[in-house]
Structures are given as C-alpha cells and as structure tokens.
Design a protein that fits this description.
Chain A has 495 residues and is mainly alpha-helical. In chain A, 42% of the residues lie in helices and 5% in strands. In chain A, α3 (38-50) runs antiparallel to α6 (106-131), α14 packs antiparallel against α15 (407-420) and α14 runs antiparallel to α16. With 983 residues, chain B is mainly beta. The two termini of chain B are 31 Å apart. The chains are: A mainly alpha (495), B mainly beta (983).
C-alpha cells in the first residue's frame, strides 16, 4: 500500500503542476493592451491611413483594382476593362460600364467591405485617442477621416448602416437615411476641420490637414442636392474659399522634356504629388505602401515591357467618343495612346465588343495619366494619387457660381484650368455643360466621374456600349453578403 | 540525428548485455512441430514452459527446439488466431502439437487506447488489420496498406506526387475546419497523419481503427474524427531474427488528358480567327518532355533478439521515389529501435521506443500559371500551346510577351528550386509496475520533435513574370514542432466468480509548441546561389512579409477513467469518462467532459443457444459516446489580437502598420460529436463466414467555422465560432468467407461496404448572444454548405446550349430574363454532392501450396466532381494563348460567363487497386535462410469510371473542395519484391 500512496502522491504532484490551460501569446499583441498605450493610439490613427492606400482585394481608395476606384470609374463613361477575345479579363467591369450590375457584384461587395473596415479603424482611432487624451488635432483628424468614409458610403449607397462606437451590436445598428448620414458628415466636419493642422507637406503629406478638411466639406456641399434634395452651392463656395486660404496654386503645365509625357502638368500624377496644387494625396510605394496599377492595367504586355521592363495587363481602355471630346491642343490629351507603340503594339481606336465575344487584343485607346514611376514591376508602379487638388476646387468654384447664376464670376476659375492645359479661355460665360466637360478633361481617371455624371444628370443617359439606364442605378445595391449577414438592412429600390 | 546516435551509443552496450544473458541449466532438449488442424505449420507459434519464463518460437515450418529443465512438466503453446494449449511433456524429447484455430472473434487482442482488450470482449466498433492483411507491395505510406481493408475507413490518394501522403476519413467528414483527420497513435505516441511518415511500412504488426464514439471517447478532445492505432512489430521473446524486405517498382502514367497537337491546334485556331502571329511554328509535346517513367524502391532491414527478460528490435528502412514528372522525387530514411526489459522479479517492465526519420523532397512546382488558371506545373503542360518552341534560337527559354503572364513549363521545371526536408524524432518510455496482483501503475512519456525546412528559388529564367520583375525570388521557411505527452495511470484487473472487472484511471498532460521563421530576398545578379545565400539579393527590395517568425503553443490536460465489466462472458459493459482542458479555447469554455458507455451481449454463449447450429458466434453491441475536436483549432484564436500588417505612411515616413487580425470569441469551444452505434458480430457455417454490421449516427455540434459576420460592428470579416451542426449516419458491413480450406488450397473472400449520408443540420445560430444567419457558404467549385444538404452540395446553373457564336446559354429557371449568378440564385438547381455516398472493397486471397495471390478491388460512388480543368481547357476563346482539350473541338464552346453543370461529372469509380502474387521458396534444408518469399505486385492496374479527368480520387472525397483543378498524374506501378528471414 505504501507504493500505492507513493504513486498517488507523485501523480497528484504532477497533476497539481500541470493543470493550467491558459493561453500563451508569444507573437502578437492583445488588442486590449495594445491600443490603450500612447504609442498604440498614434498607431491607431496611422492605421486609418493604411486603409486609404490602394491594394489587392478591393482595399483602398484608389491605385489597385476591384475596389472603390473601379466601382466609381468603370460605372462612368471614362474607362472600362473589356473582356478580350484572347480569353483575358472577365465581364465584371463591362457589367459596371453598361449598368447591369447585380447585388452580388464582386467590386460592389469589396468596396462596401473596405469602407466598413475603414470606419471600424476610424472609430477605434477616435476612441483610443480620446482615451489617451491626445492632442485635439489628432482626435479631429480621426473624426474627419470617419466622416470621409461615411461620405463615400452615402455617395455610393445612400442609406447605410451607421455606427460610431465599435462595441455596438448588430441589433443596435440602424440603417441611417442618406440625409441623416449627410447631416452627420457635415456636422462632424464643421466641428472638427478648424482643429486640424494648417501645415502642408512634410509630416502632413497624405493626411487630412485643415485644407483637405475644407476640400472634403466642399465636396459634400457640392453634391448636397443629390443627397438631400436641397442644394448648398453657397456653402460649397465658402468652403472652397477656405481651401484657397491655404495658398494653393495650379502646378505649371509647361512643356518640359524631363517631365512625364513631356509636360509639367503630369507631375501631378507622378512620384510625389506637388505641394503647390495637391490638397490631399495617397502616398504610394509599390509593394510597401499600396500600389498604382492604373497604367500597367491599361497597356498591352510588350508595350509596357518595352517601356518599363514588365508585362502590361492589356486591360483598361477609353472609348473613342470620350477621347474625341478633347481639343487637339489640350496637353491633357497626351495621356491617351493609340496607334503604333514601342514593343510592336498597334492600338486600334475602336472597341469591337465589351463582353461577348470580347474585344480584340489591340482594341481601344489606352491611358497613361499616371505615367509609371519607380519602383515598378508587374504588380504596378509607385505613383501617388491625388484625392483632392486645387484644379478641382477651381472648377467647383466655377460650378457653384454658374449654379448661383453668377456665370461671369465663375468664368476666370474655369479659364485658369483651361489655360494651364494650353487652351484658350472660353468664348462665352461658362454653361453647366462647359463645367461638366472641363471636369471630364481635367479630372478624368481620378475617381470623380460617377459623382459628376450624377450631379450633372448624365449618368443614366446612353453612351457608346451603354443603353439608357433606370434611375435606381444612381445608387449601388447593398451587397448580398451584407444583406445576408444583417437582416435589418433594407435594399435600395430597384434591386 | 546527432541525439539519436548518442542514444544508440548508450543503448548498444545494454543490448549486448541482454544478448549475453543466456539461460543455462541442467537440461534436455525437446524438439517438435506446431501445426494447425490441416497440418499446416504455424510459424512463430510461442512455446513456453509453464512455471518458467523460458520459451521459444516455432520457425517458418513450425519446427522448434527448446532446452527444458528436468523439473519442467508442461509446455504452453500459443499463437495468434489459435486456442492456447497446455501439453504435458513427461520425459518426451519430441512432441508434435496441433493447435485449433480460434474463430475470428476469439482470443485476438485488440488495442483500444490506453490498453488492450480481447476481441471477443469488445463493445465498440473497432476494425483490426493485422500485418498479414495489409495491402502487399511497395508502399510509401502505411495508409496505402490499409486502403480498402476496413469498412468506413476511406483512404484517398490524390495523384502520385512523390512523398504526397494519402488522406483518410473515418465515417465521413466530422468537421468543416476543426480537422477531420483522425488521431494517429503509434505505440502510444499521439500525433497527426504525419506520424505515418515515421513508420516503416514493413514494421507494422497491426493497425486498429477506433470508429465509434464509445471506442474513441477515451481520447476525448482528440477523438472525434476517429483514431488509428498502429502497433509496430516487437521481437518475440527468446528468439533472434534478421529480416530483409526489398522491392522495386516501375511507375507509369495511368492516364493523361488529351490536348491538341500542333497541327490540330493551328487548324482550330484559324477557325476562330486567331492571328498567325500566335503560331510560333514549333511542334512541341510539353507533357511528354516533362514526364518519364518513375521508379520506386523500398528496402528495410530489421533484426532483434532477446531473452525471457528482455528483447529488442531494430530496423532501418528506406523509401526512394523518383516521380513521373521530371525533377520530382522523395527520399525517406527511417530508423527505429525498441527495447523491453523486465526487472524486480518481473514486476516492472520498461519499454522504450526511439524512432527517427530524415526525408528529402524535390517538389514539382505548384501554384504556377496565369492568374486565371493556377495549378501545378504538370497541369500547365496542357495549357501550353503546342506550336510554342521550348527554346529561342539563342538557346534561352522561349517566352511570348504578348501573352499575359506567359509561362514556359519546361523552363519552370528546369530552373525553379523547390525542395525541402524534414528531420523527425520521437521517443517514448513506458514503465509498468505491478503493485499488487491485478493492480498496475504505469507511466508513459513521449516526446516528438519535427523540424522541417523548405527552400525555394524562382529565377527570372523560369519565364514567370513575378520572377522577371523581381530578378529572382528566393525564400526559406523553417518550421519546428515540439510535442510532449505524459501519462500516469493505474489499472486494476480482477475476476470474481463469473465477473471480470478491468478499471483504469489516468492523468494525461500534453504540450505542443510550434515555432518557425521565413525569410525572402529578391533581386539576384545571377542564379548561382539560389536560396542558399539570401544576402546576395538586393536588400533594398525587401518588402513587408519578406521576414517573419511565429511561436504558439497548446496545452491539454486530461483526466480519464474507464471500466470494463464482463459477466459470465456474455454480458459486457464498458464505460468511460474523460475530462479535458485545452488552452486554445475561449476563457469561458476551457474544460469539457466526454463520457461514453457501451454494452454487448454475446448471445451465442447463452444456454438457450447451446443447441442451435447456425451461429458459432453472435454478439450484439450498442454504444453511445461523446467526443471532442479541437486539434484543428490553432492556438490564439479566441482573443482579439493585433498583428503587424505591412507598412503605412504616416507623419512623413513609412511605419509599420498594425491591425486587428481577428475577432474575439471568448466562448470558443470544442466541437462535440455525439455518436450512437449499434453493431452485430457473427460467425456462421462452422466459423467459415464471419462478419460485422454496424449502424451509426453521429452529430457534430458546436461546429467550428469561420463565419462571415457583418463588418459593422465586427472589425474583421469573419469570426471563428461554434455555431452549426453536422450529421453523419451510415451502415457498414464487412464479411470474410473462408471459401476453401484444404491441405493445399485456401481461398478467402473478404469485402466491405459502407453507406454514408452527410447533412449540414444548421449553419446559423448565435454568436456572443447575437443571432447570426448564414447559409449557402461556398465550399469548393460551385458547391456550397447548405442547411439540410450534404457538405459540398452542387448548386448550379443548368447548361442549356451553345449559341452560333459559341457562347454558352443556361436555363433561366425563374424566367425573369436575368441569369443571377449569386450563390442563392433561384436560377440554380441542386445537382448532387462532392461526397461519395458509398465506398466498398473486395479483397479475395488464394493460396495454393507455396503460391499465394491476393487482390484489392476498391471503389466509391454517388458523388459528383466539378471538372475545373476541363472547363479551363475547353473554351476556344483561349486558343490564342493556350491549348485546349481534344474534346473542346467538338463542343464548340467559344466563351462562357457561367459555371454551369456542363462541367459536372459522375465521380463513381471501381479501381483494381492491387494484385499481388507471392511464392514461398522452400528453405527447409538451407543452413542460413529461415524463410524466403518473392512477390510481384501491380498497383492501380485498372479503373472503371465515367469521369473524364485524370483520376476521380480527389480531395473532394475527403471534404476539401469539390473540383478538379488538375492533379499530379496518378501512376500505375509494377513491382518485384523479396522477403528474407535469416536463421
């Protein structure tokens, strides 16, 4: 029996020492500890900006594919990736272009998911910065970022689930009407924009400073009539004037052999967006922070290869009708390529088909607005992307004035932009169509086109491959996966 | 390996000591023969002297010689499968002993986990496969040896890539992501299927498969997917032996896909307006260039010896495989040693096992090809245009810059380095101490270490675009695991009158630590150093993700108890309870209890059955048990964690970005599987026909899955949670018929069939108290998890036709003129499931004098396969950039925007898996050789199937995916083998 007790004692001792089943974490941080540290709260703010750079799987504002940028560009008339009869590319982008998208569309889903991930990180940043008693400007910055994301959501989907605190549960997650989201965005911006730093460049490059904040507010007011039925042209103008206080000028457009495409104008879309004109930019460094695929996606394999040493994707084209609207003296027309190119490629200006049987390999005019800057590889280039720049603000000023029946006051603003592009001033006071067209020339491929087409009532009209579309197409459908996951959501009408 | 050597060095003197420890006494010699009722010798029968520890074993002809002391009165003769006999020897010097064979459910011993049981005492569903029933021929993995041998155990070999292990499912898919791989226990050491790579196929004594929960519940949290227990050969007491097994096989490609040749391709391409610029004028058969005849060798040497107090067995084995695709091979070297020593008046027994292996793999590159079709290298051979040359005129590899992400498969095979290896070691020590009569204390400790590395170099010359962009990419990953287990237990056995009682209590502690690192460099000035000198790369090109490391661990604490009670050898009861705690679960659910109970009734032993003539044996079994599953759950999954995620730009510089990498779920818990099993074991016709029928129903509750959650409020789009439930129910029948048993001829007909029905009962539920509705979750190619349907149910658009322009049309089922391709679209219909409904095998064996012949026919059916590779290689729109199947020409499909049922095929098959013929050469008069057998084996000799792909045995059969994206070809092998046992 002694032996039994001995064995039992040994067993018990071992059992005592080995009864713990706590989890050990060696290679990650626990979220609760991490964000409550002072470094963590700063990192939370930096993490919101990490959401903006474009990357695979629909992440980011612009620069990569199948996300917010594609949704808002391919659904307009300025660019499309056709299915090719060589078997390349699906028909998903053609579906956006011809307005036949369904709630299951991948790009719609990915853009939606991206925005809610971004809102979560913005909420987190607001919460952590407030807890850590961070500088007021940083808290304001996080709130402005959040307002930016809600503005993008409201712009594309109208009434959307709304929350500002991450510990909320699904049943407390109401779908706010488009007008309510609009009010929130406006209030939040008005309350916070003045708290933002007035510094430009340096450590504020790629961040919401005061001027970027006002540019955003101006954008929201500019489209207020679309969102709420009530126009806010005067308020938009005021906000634009606030931006002007930041001392912005148009970047020169002069011919310059060392500039991309031979003109200083195209430096706006180069390695670093120039400080004189750029209000808010996305910093991009290929494979490190985001990517910019806009040109490699457009050019054909051997063409891009001859120029930059990687194979192009032979994707995005621009319809001839769009390109033909440019004046031949317009330096901005240089971004388009057709005909014989290096690498033995010869782009035709026509596009035989978008979906079935698909375009021929060399069909379509290509775009090089974001003329690639190093590092470059088969996954894209490193061009920064301007979210807001002063030319846009000038055209908004012109538009507001025209809308407020002060066309003469608006004329110098549009003429400034035209002059930089090598064009003569308008012969007469600008009309809304003049503004619309000028925006199309100046801001194409910068993610504004869908919003502009809707504001100028052009979105539903037929063009090239697209037939007239139903009014419900002005809003995207809430993705099926979001409806499946949250039964409280009401789908937009028409879908 | 250095540590192995040290241990061996310590062991060898000890072993030598045991060997020298000869028994000597005043004695005489008894000679004799042990044979069965048919006068066939019983090799290996054990002959012991009652009251002594002295004994020997019969040789291959049943002969034995034994020194006996004058006091010896009785011999005890026994052998597995025969009834033990006691024989008085008086003064005899020559005895001939006839053992009566016990029925198939006789005294056979079955390993049941933490102990053994007599087969006739079993109350649960356990399949036992002894070494003589393992599939013969050269095997590279022990799972291949049990394929088709046990009902309800489905072994699935996908392709024949060297070193690729088969998958196995016991009674179906038990979990979606929690792991459906059974627990593998090799001589007490617990592990995953990788453990099989450390077991030499020739060194297996028996394989026991625990199928129902009443049997597996003893393994609690690791028992839900079933348990495979491997017992390796031990040396028979008092006998030394040297055994050599050697075999070599030639492997040929059983089937390849038929694609167009150069002439056919150009003809077809012209029809579809492919410009002449796409025809590069060569005539290349890339598939042929990339393949060869494979060659597989298996060699093993085993030896052992010992006395009555100690024994050892050591073996080395080598498996060498040259794949049928060039530059793919696998080498596995295994060494093991086992020693048993008794001490302190035989009351203490030590058993030590040490097992190490080194394996090296040269892998055929996977994940190559264009974004639209990424597969293994050999599948890209079908894609390559036959008119593309392999080389340019200057001797460099051909590439076409006009084709997006062009790859030249031959360049890939010649230039990519893709190789790795592993060094694995496990050792265990068991001590059994008999404290009182019937009461045994035991301690068991095992330690397993695995160390894997993989090196990869992708040079620009490979023609792969990312390699060209980066001027070469090299990376190395190292992964280590360290798994330790400790058992301390007490076992009490007692017979009171008509009752037998066997009780076990045990404490178990397991700790598993996983660590690893990964490094990558890009931008090499030449390709000489491949992945061996990452520092030669351009370090300014380092991007996030190029350097990483990890560490995590898992601890399991368990208390378990089991009671076996037998009354009058007729009424049998087994009950067990296991309590497990696991570190990987949420704080609210760290512990779980796993009970089981089963009863059996041996009707044939009842007095009222005494006069019936039908049944020689009849047993009814009923069992119920609950098991858990957490092994598929990786550590650190229950809390909200922050992980670095690339780089962001903030404050004017690039800084490391941190993100929340998962949602928290403090309720994360085990999957639990409740299983009921009812079975009958019988033996009729003078025990010539024996069989087992089992019916079972198993429900997995708290089903683990990465559920999609709404992004407000969740920071991460999925959450790992226990929400759904899953049902598997089935019937298993196995029969064994001794059709002919005469002096010269034995014919046995064996077979089994299992029917299995799988159903997703529920996918919705609540997480953290909130309702979650989920259904139609993608699972493979166009197949889904749908409530009320089987896993991998195809929900598809129905192919209607092909238009004049070559576009596919599909049926608009809801007639709204819109083809909705969403997963829940009303335009889709249910078209079957990826899981087989039934599997079966037929295993006849015949022996005539010295010749034996055995076969394995194996099949499964009732499932569908989505032939993705046919879909990819059938669209004529791709002609400009790739080749197509011959069948695509007749189909005339130019393009399609649908994943329709056009590519869905019947996955049923019957395979002539194995044919083996052996000849036992008479060595009666040979001084050195005890037994000699030569054999010839064919594997995968034929297959009957309607499936048009390479082979219908695909991963969809074990629950991962449902499609065929192209596999490494399945081989057909023909081998010759020799088995020699020296005297």
């Amino acid at each position: 029996m002694k032996k039994i007790s001995l064995v039992s004692i040994v067993a018990l001792m071992l059992a005592q020492s080995c009864t713990k089943v706590n989890e050990n974490v060696y290679d990650k941080y626990a979220a609760s500890d991490f964000y409550s540290s002072p470094t963590g709260s700063d990192v939370a703010l930096a993490g919101v900006y990490a959401k903006i750079a474009g990357n695979w799987d629909g992440n980011g504002y612009a620069g990569a594919d199948n996300g917010w940028y594609d949704l808002n560009s391919m659904s307009s008339d300025e660019q499309v990736v056709p299915h090719r009869n060589t078997g390349d590319w699906g028909i998903d982008n053609a579906q956006l272009y011809t307005h036949v998208w369904l709630p299951t569309h991948n790009t719609i889903n990915q853009a939606w998911n991206w925005l809610y991930r971004a809102i979560f990180s913005a909420n987190l940043a607001v919460e952590q910065l407030t807890k850590a008693n961070a500088e007021a400007s940083k808290i304001a910055e996080a709130k402005v970022l959040r307002a930016f994301f809600y503005y993008l959501l409201m712009d594309d989907w109208g009434s959307v689930p709304f929350y500002t605190e991450n510990n909320i549960t699904i049943d407390q997650l109401p779908q706010k009407s488009r007008a309510d989201v609009y009010s929130f965005v406006v209030q939040e911006l008005v309350a916070n924009v003045d708290k933002l730093s007035a510094n430009k460049g340096g450590q504020y490059y790629g961040r919401f400073n005061k001027w970027a904040g006002y540019a955003l507010l101006a954008k929201v007011y500019l489209n207020a009539q679309v969102y709420t039925g009530t126009a806010k042209w005067a308020e938009c103008l005021t906000a634009c004037n606030k931006v002007s206080d930041g001392g912005f000028t148009l970047h020169p457009g002069a011919a310059n052999a060392s500039s991309p495409l031979g003109y200083q104008y195209f430096e706006l879309f180069g390695d670093v967006c120039p400080e004189d004109e750029t209000i808010l930019a996305i910093y991009t460094k290929l494979d490190i922070v985001g990517r910019n695929i806009l040109t490699i996606r457009s050019l054909q394999g051997p063409h891009f290869n001859a120029l930059f040493g990687s194979s192009g994707w032979n994707g995005t084209v621009v319809h001839k009708d769009y390109v033909d609207r440019f004046d031949n003296n317009d330096i901005r027309k240089k971004q388009y390529l057709s005909g014989q190119q290096p690498g033995g490629v010869n782009y035709s200006t026509s596009i035989s088909s978008l979906d079935n049987p698909g375009a021929n390999r060399e069909d379509g005019i290509r775009d090089t607005k974001f003329y690639p800057v190093a590092p470059i590889n088969g996954g894209g280039a490193s061009n920064d992307f301007p979210i807001y720049r002063y030319a846009d603000i000038l055209l908004m000023k012109a538009e507001c004035n025209v809308r407020l029946n002060n066309a003469a006051t608006g004329k110098p603003f549009i003429d400034q932009v035209r002059a930089r592009a090598g064009l003569n001033p308008l012969a007469a006071n600008p009309t809304l169509d003049d503004i619309y067209n000028e925006r199309g020339f100046e801001l194409t491929w910068e993610g504004h086109r869908r919003q502009d087409m809707i504001r100028f009532d052009k979105f539903l009209l037929p063009h090239d491959f697209k037939a007239v579309s139903g009014a419900f197409r002005k809003l995207f459908p809430i993705p099926t996966s979001a409806l499946n996951a949250n039964k409280n959501l009401v789908q937009n009408p028409g879908y | 390996m250095r540590s192995t050597r040290k241990l061996l060095a310590a062991f060898i003197p000890l072993l030598l000591f045991f060997l020298c420890h000869q028994v000597s006494a005043q004695s005489r010699t008894i000679k004799g023969t042990v044979s069965d009722e048919k006068s066939q010798p019983i090799p290996g029968a054990s002959i012991a002297i009652m009251g002594s520890t002295n004994g020997t074993a019969a040789d291959s002809l049943g002969h034995f010689t034994l020194m006996v002391a004058p006091s010896a009165k009785t011999l005890v003769v026994s052998s597995v499968g025969y009834t033990k006999q006691e024989i008085a020897i008086a003064n005899q010097t020559n005895v001939n002993i006839t053992l009566l064979s016990s029925s198939s459910i006789g005294t056979e011993v079955v390993v049941v986990g933490y102990g053994t049981a007599r087969k006739k005492d079993l109350t649960g569903a356990v399949s036992t496969i002894s070494s003589k029933d393992l599939n013969p021929g050269p095997s590279t993995n022990p799972l291949q040896q049990i394929a088709g041998r046990a009902a309800g155990v489905n072994v699935i070999q996908t392709g024949s890539e060297p070193g690729a292990a088969p998958g196995v499912r016991i009674r179906g898919i038990t979990s979606l992501i929690g792991g459906s791989d059974p627990l593998v226990v090799v001589d007490g050491v617990q592990g995953n299927l990788d453990l099989f790579k450390q077991v030499p196929p020739n060194e297996i004594e028996s394989v026991d498969v625990l199928k129902d929960a009443s049997a597996t519940a003893i393994y609690g949290a690791r028992g839900a997917p079933g348990v495979i227990i491997v017992t390796t050969k031990k040396n028979k007491n008092g006998r030394s032996s040297v055994e050599i097994n050697s075999s070599a096989s030639v492997d040929v490609i059983a089937k390849k896909l038929e694609v167009l040749n150069a002439t056919e391709w150009w003809q077809e391409a012209q029809k579809w307006n492919v410009p002449a610029s796409e025809n590069h004028g060569a005539n290349t058969d890339v598939f042929n260039i990339l393949t060869r005849n494979g060659f597989t060798q298996n060699h093993s040497l085993a030896f052992g010896g010992g006395s009555d107090k100690s024994s050892y067995r050591a073996s080395v084995a080598t498996i060498l495989q040259n794949g049928i695709v060039i530059n793919s091979n696998y080498k596995n070297y295994i060494g093991r040693i086992q020693a048993v020593q008794k001490a302190i008046n035989d009351r203490v027994t030590f058993t030590m096992n040490l097992n190490g292996n080194v394996s090296n793999t040269l892998g055929s590159p996977s994940g190559v090809g264009r974004a639209a079709f990424t597969s293994n290298l050999i599948s890209n051979a079908y894609v390559a245009r036959p008119t593309d040359p392999v080389y340019n005129a200057d001797g460099s590899y051909f590439s076409d810059p006009n084709v997006f992400q062009y790859i030249n498969p031959y360049a890939v095979s010649q230039t990519i380095k893709n190789e790795g290896g592993s060094n694995n070691l496990f050792g265990s020590l068991r001590a059994d101490v008999e404290i009182l009569k019937g009461l045994t204390a035991s301690g068991f400790g095992s330690w397993r270490k695995t160390d894997n590395y993989w090196g990869y170099y992708l040079p620009a010359a490979s023609t792969i675009s990312t390699a060209i962009d980066n001027k070469g990419i090299a990376n190395i990953s190292n992964n280590r695991a360290d798994e330790r287990l400790l058992d301390i237990g007490l076992n009490y056995k007692k017979t009171f009158g008509n009752s037998r009682f066997d009780a076990l209590v045990l404490y178990e502690y397991q700790t598993q630590v996983y660590q690893g690192n990964y490094a990558q460099a890009k931008g090499f000035i030449n390709d000489i150093t491949t992945y061996n000198a990452l520092q030669n790369g351009d370090l300014s090109k380092v991007t996030p993700g190029d350097v990483s490391s990890y560490k995590n661990d898992r601890n399991l604490v368990s208390y378990l108890g089991r009671v076996n009670y037998t009354l009058r050898d007729r009424y049998l009861l087994t009950a067990s309870l296991r309590r497990d705690g696991s570190s990987v679960l949420g704080v609210n659910n760290k512990w779980g209890n796993f009970p089981s109970a089963s009863v059996a009734w041996r009707l044939s032993q009842e007095p009222f059955m005494e006069h019936q003539k039908v049944f020689n044996d009849l047993k009814l079994r009923v069992g119920y048990g609950m098991t858990g599953n957490q092994q598929g759950l990786y550590p650190q999954r229950s809390t909200q964690l922050v992980n670095s995620s690339g780089v962001t730009y903030f404050g004017g510089s690039q800084i490391t970005n941190f993100v929340i990498s998962q949602n928290s779920n403090s309720d994360l818990r085990w999957e639990t599987r409740n299983q009921t099993n009812i079975g009958v074991d019988f033996s009729i016709l003078d025990s010539r026909l024996s069989g087992t029928v089992d019916v079972f129903k198993a429900t997995t509750k708290n089903l683990l899955f990465n559920y999609t959650v709404p992004q407000p409020p969740y920071p991460y789009p999925t959450i790992l949670a226990n929400v759904g439930s899953l049902l598997n129910e089935g019937v298993e029948v196995s029969l064994n018929y001794l059709a002919i048993k005469s002096r010269d001829i034995t014919l046995t007909l064996g077979g089994n069939i299992s029917f299995l029905r799988n159903r997703v009962l529920e996918l919705s539920g609540s997480i953290n108290g909130l309702p979650l509705n989920t259904d139609y979750v993608g699972w493979g190619s166009n197949s889904y998890l749908i409530k009320g349907k089987s896993i991998g149910t195809f929900y598809l658009l129905e192919h209607k036709g092909i238009t004049e322009t070559g576009a596919e049309t599909v049926v608009d089922r809801n007639k709204d003129n819109v083809i909705d391709q969403g997963s829940q679209s009303p335009d889709r219909y249910f078209a079957g499931s990826a899981l087989p409904k039934y599997t079966y095998a037929f295993t006849p064996a015949i022996s005539y004098k010295n010749v034996d012949l055995s076969m394995v026919w194996r099949g499964s059916g009732g499932n569908k396969i989505y032939n993705d590779i046919r879909s990819n290689l059938s669209r004529l729109e791709n002609l400009g950039k790739s080749n197509v199947l011959k069948s695509a020409v007749g189909l005339g499909l130019f393009t399609t925007q649908y994943g329709s049922d056009l590519w869905l095929e019947n996955g049923s098959f019957l395979r002539f898996e194995n044919l083996s013929i052996g000849y036992r050469i008479n060595t009666r008069n040979n001084k050195y050789i005890d037994a000699l057998r030569i054999s010839a084996t064919g594997n995968n000799i034929a297959i009957i199937t309607k499936y048009t792909g390479i082979d219908p045995e695909l991963s969809g059969g074990y629950g991962s995916g449902s499609g065929d994206g192209g596999i490494y070809p399945r081989t057909r092998n023909f081998s010759l083998g020799i088995n020699v046992i020296f005297k």
